[in-house]
What does this fold into?
Amino acid sequence: MSANIHDLLRARATNPDKTAIETPDGQRITYRELYARAGRMARALVDLGVEPGDRVAAQIDKSPDAIVLALACFRAGAALLPLNTAYTLTELEYFLGDAEPALTLCRPGQLEAVRALSERLGLRAVESLGDRGDGTFLARVAQTSEEPPTVPRARDDLAAILYTSGTTGRSKGAMLTHENLSSNAEALVSLWRFTADDVLIHALPVYHTHGLFVATNVALLAGATMIFQPKFDADAVMAAMPRATALMGVPTFYTRLLEHPGLTRAATQHMRLFVSGSAPLLAETHELWRERTSHAILERYGMTETNMITSNPYEGDRIAGTVGFPLPGVSLRVAEPEGGRVLAQGEVGVIEVKGPNVFKGYWRMPEKTAAEFRPDGFFITGDLGMVDARGYVHIVGRAKDLIISGGFNVYPKEVESEIDAMEGVVESAVVGLAHPDFGEGVAAVVVRVPGASIDEFAIREALEGRLAKFKQPKRVFFVEALPRNAMGKVQKAALREAYKGAFQP
Ligand code: AMP
It folds into this structure.
C-alpha cells in the first residue's frame, strides 16, 4: 500500500463539506475544495515538468495555497522545499544551488529577480504564487480541471526538505519522509485529542516545521478547521478565541498575549488546548497563564530533523519547565556528548532519539549525517537535557551553548532560571565569552521590567550563595529585548558576537 501522506490525510477528511481553512477575509475552503485544488495544483506541477522525486522550492507568503501546495507536492510525489520569506536573494542562491529544484515558486513581486538567479544556476522553471490567488503558477492552476491520481510513495520516500536555521556554518537540508510526517501527525492527534470538532488558530509561519507540519498536519488529519492568520497578531488571536478550541504557538505568542488586557478566563473559555514549542517556555509564563486563564499550557519539544519528540501529557501534570514524555514510538536517551556513553536518569547529557519521526539525513551531506547519528541509529539532537525521576524530560540548553569556564560545565538554563526569578527581571540569556584565564567566562544579558532599578551589582550579589562561584556571571549586561528569530528562539550567537570582547584585557 502506498505510504503517501496525501492519501492518509484525505482519507481522514470524512466530512467533505467541513471547512478546512478559514481566512481573515472570510474565505472558507472546505475539505472537498482543498483536495480538489491540490489535485489541480498537482496537475500544474506535472505540466511544468515536476517528476516524482523532484524538489519544489517555495518562498511564498502565507495563505491557504501554501498548504494546497504542500498537498499537491505530496500528491505528485515531489518533495516540498519551503523557504523562510526573510531570506534574501543571496541566501536563496545557496538553497536553490544546493537543492536543484525542478520548480521554484516565489512571490509575484520577485519573479523577475528569481528567474534571473535561477537562470544563472541553470535551473529550469520559476513561477510565482501570491497570497491572494495571484501569480503565474496559480493562473496555470486555474486553467486545468484535471486531478491526476496520487503518485504512490514508499514510507521512506521524501515528502519535504526543510533547511535548518543553522546559526553556525551552512544550513543543512533535513530530508523528511512520508512516514516521518504521518507517524508524527498520528501520534499528536491521538495524544492531544484532536477531532473534527476542533478549530485551531493558526498564526505560525508555514515555512517552518511547527506551522507547516505540527499544526497543519494535525488539523488536517483530524479533519478539523484552521483559522488562518497571516502572522501573529494578539488582537486577531484574541478575537478568534471565542470560536476556537486550540492554539499552537511559540513562547513569544504567550508572553505577548499575557500583555493583552482582554486575556481572561472568560475570553479563553471556549478553548481546550494551548500548545507551546520551538523554544523554551519560561516557567513564569506558564504560571501567569494559568492564573489568568486557568489553562495549563502544554509544552512540547521537537526539531526540524526529528519532528516532535516529547510532549507534556494531555491528562496528568503539565509541568512548567519540562517538555514531558517521549511520544509513543519514540525512543529517547541521554548520553555523554563526546563518547556517547548512555547516562543514568537524572544525569545531564545530550538528548538522542530514534523512531519513525527521525529524518533520513541531510540532503547531499553524507558525512554530516553520519556524524550526527550513533552507530545504533540514534540521532544526536545537540540539545542538553535530563530525564527526572517521574520520566519528564528537561532541556537545559543547546550543546553548542554549553559554557565551559575554568574546566567546569555551566548550563545556561540553571543560571537563567535564578536570574529570571529575581524581582525586576523579565528574562535573561546566559552565554560564554572568551576569557583569558577561564577559557570562557559566564556573562548574562538581562531584560528589566520597565522602571525597575535592579543593576549588575544587585544581580551578582543575589547569585552569591545561590550558585557555585564558577557559574556566577562575571558580567551582566542590560538590553531592551533579547534578539529572537521568527520562531521565538533567542539568538545566542548574536549575543556572543555583540559582547565578545567583554573579558579581553
Ligand atoms: P527547529 O529545528 O527550528 O524546530 O529547532 C529545534 C530546536 O528548538 C531544538 O533542538 C531545541 O533546541 C529547541 N526547542 C524546541 N522546542 C523546545 C522546547 N519546548 N523547549 C526548549 N527548547 C526547544
User: Anything to note?
Assistant: The mean pLDDT is 96. The pocket of adenosine monophosphate is lined by residues 164-165, 209, 277-280, 299, 301-304, 323, 381, 383, 395, 398, 487 (CB under 6 Å).
